[in-house]
């Protein structure tokens, strides 16, 4: 009976949970993604170059999206806190250009950092080189820092991913270390960058 009540209560709380709203930045609008966005997630992962510094350039299958990606998203997605994947859309054209990740650092590891929030970005190649990742991340950092209990914003990248590292530096993040990032999908050597929230 207690287990049944717990499930019902969780569902009720889910319906009552408020979704954080992010106002538009200079060029972009933001919407929190969910399992209804499977096709958008799939489209983004069909470019070998987009995936090069994610998994070595392997494109994602629809089975990957439904069996792995969406269940992982559901574990950390929290609309009230702003955790999840934020769809990025160019306001002037309505073009979907990718997403920006927000979740606690080490969420899938043994020691999640609940007030140190990881940012990550994945954009279509056509959106590279226009400053969109920096604009989106900077805007979200500002909005989240003003409304949420966050002490640091951090990011990771493969050591050879110069473009992402440049974005981290533009965001004011500083190099912390190079080490092994543990994840159920596989461990990877990455560089860690971080910025303390003032």
Rg over alpha carbons: 17 Å
Helix content: 25-40%
Q: What is CATH's topology name?
A: Aminopeptidase
Strand order within the widest sheet? Answer: 1-2-3-4-5-7-6
Tally of separate domains? 1
E-strand count: 7
What's the SSE pattern? Answer: HEHHHEEEHEHEE
What low-confidence regions span 5 or more consecutive residues with pLDDT below 50? 1-16
Q: What percent strand?
A: 25-35%
Shape: globular
Corresponding CATH architecture: 3-Layer(aba) Sandwich
The termini sit apart by 47 Å
CATH superfamily (homologous) name: Gcn5-related N-acetyltransferase (GNAT)
Count of discrete alpha- or pi-helical segments spanning 4 or more residues: 6
What structural category arises from helix and sheet content?
alpha+beta
Could you report the average pLDDT, rounded to the nearest whole number?
92
Describe this structure in words.
With 198 residues, the protein is α+β, with helices and mostly antiparallel strands. It has one domain (19-196): Gcn5-related N-acetyltransferase (GNAT) (Aminopeptidase). It is built from six helices and seven strands; from the N terminus they run αβαααβββαβαββ. It has helices at residues 2-16, 38-44, 48-55, 62-76, 132-147, 162-170, and strands at residues 28-32, 84-90, 95-105, 113-123, 152-157, 174-181, 188-196. A seven-stranded mixed β-sheet has the order 1-2-3-4-5-7-6, with helices on both faces. A hairpin with a 7-residue loop joins β3 and β4. α2 packs across α4. It is globular and about 35 Å long.
């Amino acid at each position: 009976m207690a287990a049944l009540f717990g499930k019902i209560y969780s569902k009720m709380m889910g319906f009552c949970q408020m979704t954080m709203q992010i106002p538009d930045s200079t060029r972009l609008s933001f919407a929190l993604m969910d399992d209804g966005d499977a096709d958008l997630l799939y489209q983004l992962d069909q470019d070998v170059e987009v995936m090069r510094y994610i998994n070595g350039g392997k494109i994602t299958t629809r089975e990957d999206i439904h069996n792995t990606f969406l269940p992982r998203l559901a574990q950390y997605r929290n609309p009230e806190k702003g955790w999840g994947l934020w769809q990025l859309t160019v306001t002037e054209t309505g073009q979907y250009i990718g997403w920006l990740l927000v979740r606690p650092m080490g969420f899938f590891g043994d020691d999640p950092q609940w007030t140190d929030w990881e940012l990550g970005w994945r954009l279509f190649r056509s959106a590279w080189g226009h400053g969109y990742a920096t604009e989106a991340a900077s805007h979200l950092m500002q909005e989240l820092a003003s409304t949420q209990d966050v002490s640091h914003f951090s990011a990771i990248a493969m050591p050879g991913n110069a473009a992402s590292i440049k974005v981290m530096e533009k965001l004011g993040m500083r190099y912390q270390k190079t080490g092994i990032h543990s994840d159920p999908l596989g461990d990877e050597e990455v560089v860690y960058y971080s910025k303390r929230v003032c």
